[in-house]
């Protein structure tokens, strides 16, 4: 959170210091403003008017037209009216009017589409919240023309609304007319269907027919029961007469037919009886071959033959031998009664079959009654619904014709177009002020973007703000143009100042082990460490310098011990580690024997040959043992390490040190420095400050810088 605040302060600080940037941007902006004013700017005068939407719908005389909506009778459509103001129809009218009245106002090089867009921008409408009031304004380069053109706009605007309202009502009336015609056709068809159905089913009234069928069914059922009783009675009568006669009806009829009613047959039978009696009498006295007997037999045969012919004439067939003949009136009367009873019986049986068939037909007709009733009721319901719809539509048709005839515009002008007394926004003053404000805002944006893109801490104060520590000192870089005398003086002052700050920062904490690292890939911090150690040695302090950068060792070159070194640091760590595993004791004498000495009497411990896996040498306890042993016998231990952002062993070494010092450039990347500081804090490493490498300076500038 603290670093974020520092970063914000840095942005504002950079912003306040970019005065030249503001001047440059302002000049550029005002240059374009002048071009715009000369080439494109034209003054505008705005005429304003106020209109209100009113409900112009007439009272409903016949019936309410449900669902009615539209501009003419709905005062809540104020927002929709803005689309009419922005329509092509209104802009096209205005463009044609200007062509006719003010042709000089048209730019010959501008096409109709561009002019149309220009008019749309000049004509504006705005509704007041929760009201039906619309404020309309129109801008033009002449105040009088602006007022006149706005009047024409309002006139055409009212005409457009009137046309829309009329079209809505006309469309509604036409729709009602068409719907009414369709309903009328359907109603007529349903009525014809009802008439045809009732005619085809003989059903003027289904209920009346149903009651009639029920009554017929009851009557036929009653008559059937009475007929069955009569049949049963006649059956008993026939049976009784047949028992009395000893004949069935057929034989009794034949017997009567062969009786007294046929006079020829009776005469022939009398002759037959007479001849039979005479034959019997003659047979006693005469032989059968007697011609008289023979003639008598032939006469008898002839009479019998005539009798058979008479029977054929009476009953239509020959009689068998032994057939009964009825001659007496009593039996004849019984036979006549039998025949009458038989005839009545047959008639009643036929009547019974007819009644049963009629009852079946009535039952069948009654079974079809519900379906007939449903179909007829459905047709009648359709007819009823269509009749209601027809009546309602007829009323609405009348109302629609009335409303169509009474259409009027729903736009009422409250405030007519006014005459603009002064020029409208933006005036030249407005443009200049906006340019100034834009320059200021653009400067802020560019400055912030520049700060974000560069991402560099410029100056000692920004580095101190980012790290939260005062710098330890500043070291310059030199080039070939720098004089040797100046270099020596600056180095003398710089290293004395750095050494003084180091002694002050570490004295109270009794710190002896100092770790040095840098944020740069270039290896330049070993010379700094070596020179600081040389200064301490001259002051009488016992110092050991350790170069822990095993990948790229440089201390042996800076101290000129390449040919006189005793033991490499990596070999010493391995050797002590082996002795520790063998439970051998390590004393200061053994370590001192492996320290190299340079010409200045400094004790050095460095590699000459690089190794790759340098982290493994410092991850264990061997290096810590070496540091602890040296602390007991030396005043200072200065450890040179690789770049802090690349070598993971830097934090391991710094963790085992008393203080950590970062060597960086004066223009270090802000995000990188912030990340290094955060990592050191999270690792709980005692970071005491930075040594800064600055650009080439002379003595006077350097002294001024140190102040």
Short description, anyone?
It contains 23 helices and twelve strands.
Gyration radius over CA: 70 Å
Head-to-tail CA distance between termini: 30 Å
Instruction: Give the low-confidence spans.
Output: 61-75
Number of helices: 23
Strand content: 5-15%
User: Can you tell me the overall shape?
Assistant: elongated
Largest sheet: 8 strands, mixed
- Indicate the percent of residues in helices: 55-70%
Structural class: alpha/beta
Annotation, overall tally of beta strands: 12
Mean pLDDT: 78
Order of adjacent strands in the largest pleated sheet: 5-12-11-6-10-7-9-8
Question: Could you characterize what this model shows?
Answer:
The chain is an alpha/beta fold and 707 residues long. The protein is built from 23 helices and twelve strands. It has helices at residues 2-17, 19-39, 78-85, 88-101, 112-122, 143-200, 206-245, 249-257, 263-285, 291-315, 329-405, 428-454, 460-467, 484-507, 525-538, 555-558, 569-581, 588-593, 615-619, 622-631, 649-655, 670-682, 699-706; strands at 45-53, 123-127, 133-140, 411-415, 473-476, 513-518, 543-547, 596-597, 603-605, 636-640, 659-665, 687-694. The strands form two sheets. Strands 5-12-11-6-10-7-9-8 form an eight-stranded mixed beta sheet, with helices on both faces. Strand 2 (123-127) and strand 3 (133-140) form a beta hairpin. Helix 2 (19-39) runs antiparallel to helix 12, helix 7 (206-245) packs antiparallel against helix 11 and helix 8 (249-257) packs across helix 11. The longest helix has 77 residues, at 329-405. The two termini are 30 Å apart.
